[in-house]
Amino acid sequence: VTSYLQDIAPDLCDRVELYDKRIPLFDKFNIEEEINNMLSKRVPLPNGGSLVIEQTEALVSIDVNGGHGMFGHGSSKEKAILDVNLAAAKQIARELRLRDIGGIIVVDFIDMADDSNKRLVYEEVKKAVERDRSMVKVSELSRHGLMEITRKRVRPSVTFMISEPCTCCQGTGRVEALETSFSKIEQEISRLLAMMEQKADPENPKSWPRFILRVDHHMCNYLTSGKRTRLAVLSSSLKAWILLKVARGFTRGAFEVIPYTDDKASENQHQVAISLLRSAEARANKSGKKVTLVPIKKLKSGRK
User: Fold this and answer.
1) 123 with 208, same domain?
2) For a FRET experiment, which of 151, 221, 238, 269 has its CA 20 to 30 Å from that of 228?
3) Are residues 134 and 237 in the same domain?
């Protein structure tokens, strides 16, 4: 390190120290924890509040939330709001440097009634960004408590450099509800049934068409839980046999429906086959007799 600094910044050589303790250097100064915190959208504040940082390609929004110290009335509540906003001002300036956020940053502070308090928050932000090496401009708070900060963009933010979009949510931070995915599966099977030339006899379960449904393990649990499973209800309503398979490489919400053929029986995959009851299920239950399951196909490597 010293040899490297001799070439680019000799005046910094005297700052280099040899760290020889047993605790790893990054653990000693909580570097790993700081890196993990940079990937989090929520940043806690010392007085119980928090920041919620949302980064997009166009701009960055920062929402200031109050914590347990926000209770009170009149001047006491105004003082509590001011304390949270002042703590947020310092933390925002720090997060801009840590995450190397550039471009337009819109901060939504907690609303304050006193204009002098708004001025205090504005001055605190200006003072906090003075340490920043990049050029930062701060606007005063609007009547709705919004502040616009512009910071010179040199490179992509650290968050975008050390992370990549989630394959499940594609960067939205939300995944499709299982009920929504279930409706899409029902629509896809209905579409395939409508395209079939040969129509099945609803009263004859043996004539019902057969499909292989490949889903992720979350959807598999959703379809097979309970006494009367959702897969059984789906099969009975659509008048079709459904062979359920767990696809390990599928992300949540992904599925595939294909017609069942004999050559599929030779596939060596982990699978869960669900056999549904015949149309006489209700009558058999009432009579107390043992209900007979109608198998889809007896597979060599699987179950009925």
Assistant:
1) no
2) 269
3) no
Same domain for 217 and 147? no
> What is the CB neighbour count within 10 angstroms for residue 206?
9
Q: Are residues 17 and 117 in the same domain?
A: no
The alpha-helical segments, DSSP class H, found in the chain are: 2-8, 25-28, 31-38, 74-99, 115-128, 158-161, 178-195, 217-224, 230-238, 281-287
Say how far apart CA 88 and CA 51 lie, in whole Å: 7
168 in Cβ contact with 175 (< 8 Å) = yes
Q: What is the pLDDT of residues 164-206, one digit of tens each?
A: 888 888 877 888 999 999 999 999 999 999 998 888 888 898 8
Domain that holds residue 15: 1-28
**What residues contact 27, with CB distance under 8 A and at least 6 apart?**
none
Contact 89, 124 (CB under 8 A): yes
> What single letter denotes the amino acid at residue 242?
I
DSSP 234-296: HHHHHT-EEEEEE-TTPPTT-EEEEE--GGGGG----B---PPBPTTHHHHHHHTPPPPB--S
pLDDT digits (tens, 9 = 90+) for 76-124: 888 889 999 999 999 999 999 999 999 999 999 999 988 999 999 999 9
d(CA 66, CA 210): 56
H or E segment and range at residue 65: strand 60-65
DSSP 8-state symbol, 69: G
Both 183 and 136 in one domain: the answer is: no
56 contacts: CB under 8 Å, gap ≥ 6: none
Q: How far is CA 124 from CA 14, 119, 129, 151, in A?
A: 34, 9, 9, 17
